[in-house]
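> example.struct
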């Protein structure tokens, strides 16, 4: 579209990764360094407050990045999302509009916006195709976050329509890996399970109790695979519709808990508290668009969980709490 040409990113061009210290952003930074990007820039929260529109515009004026990856967001599990919907909606909208408007003002040639699979309707047909967006009601526990991310997708589409900018959006499934949040109150299910089973192993606890029945099915993607997909899309894809990023394979939570128990070496019993809610029965992305573009994941779930357990043990003294 427009006068922009689509092709592999210039590895020598200035590339800004917003959120480069987070789970996804740090994985993208690691991969881009390995891939030979010679002019990566990032800014910590103390160096640049992304909700400060004037500061973000000034940052773009000074650095004029040629490629931007917007991986910065306020994120959290069900408890955090349902407890602080105002903050999840407002902060994410402010970050997105500040960064995307600054990039529009600079006519930044290439940009990738990262969203979340929670943008899709709660009862979307499985596996969830990209065209399910805006066809039904959202999951109430994280609808505020989802609306912010949907606004980001529309912002990308609007920039394409109005200015001919070849910007794209990617929607990852559940992510895990080095750099994850293992906080007891703020973590997602996989890091929470790793912490729970490791604590039980260290304490010699005879059993671990997980919420629900263990029957819901979930899809998980290692962040290093996510980073690989991001680079692939920026190198090879152009289109207005968001692209699902995942494995196309899901497992029951009971199976996933078993992978975690094996990875940490926990030999006790696992029990399930069926008085607690299960949540959505299944959540699996249709990843045929991404696979058709020539990308597929490389890290098996059991291997990725073992890798994450080792990272958790190596970094436990400096983890986010």
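> example.seq
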């Amino acid at each position: 579209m427009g006068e922009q040409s689509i092709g592999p990113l210039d590895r020598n061009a200035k590339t800004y990764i917003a959120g480069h210290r987070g789970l996804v952003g740090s994985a993208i930074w690691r991969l881009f360094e390995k891939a030979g990007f010679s002019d990566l820039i990032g800014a910590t929260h103390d160096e640049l407050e992304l909700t400060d529109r004037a500061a973000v515009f000034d940052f773009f004026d000074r650095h004029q990045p040629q490629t931007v990856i917007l991986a910065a967001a306020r994120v959290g599990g069900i408890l955090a999302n349902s407890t602080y919907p105002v903050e999840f909606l407002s902060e994410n909208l402010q970050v997105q509009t500040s960064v995307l408007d600054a990039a529009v003002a600079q006519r930044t040639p290439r940009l990738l916006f990262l969203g979340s699979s929670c943008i899709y309707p709660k009862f979307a047909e499985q596996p969830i195709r990209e065209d399910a967006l805006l066809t039904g009601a959202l999951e109430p526990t994280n609808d505020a976050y989802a609306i912010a991310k949907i606004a980001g997708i529309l912002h990308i589409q609007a920039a394409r329509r109005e200015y001919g900018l070849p910007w794209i959006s990617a929607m990852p499934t559940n992510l895990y890996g080095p750099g994850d949040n293992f906080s007891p109150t703020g973590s997602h299910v996989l890091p929470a399970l790793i912490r729970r089973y490791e604590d039980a192993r260290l304490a010699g606890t005879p059993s671990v109790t997980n919420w629900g029945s263990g029957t819901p099915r979930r899809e998980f993607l290692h962040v290093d695979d996510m980073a690989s997909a991001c680079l692939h899309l920026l190198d090879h894809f152009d289109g207005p519709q968001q692209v699902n990023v995942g494995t196309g394979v899901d497992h029951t939570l009971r199976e996933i808990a078993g992978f975690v128990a094996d990875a940490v070496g926990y030999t006790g019993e696992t029990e399930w508290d069926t008085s607690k809610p299960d949540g959505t029965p299944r959540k699996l992305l249709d990843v045929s668009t991404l696979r058709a573009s020539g990308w597929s994941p490389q890290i098996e779930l059991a291997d990725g969980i073992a890798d994450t357990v080792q990272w958790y043990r190596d970094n436990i003294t400096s983890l986010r709490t």
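> remarks
The mean pLDDT is 94.
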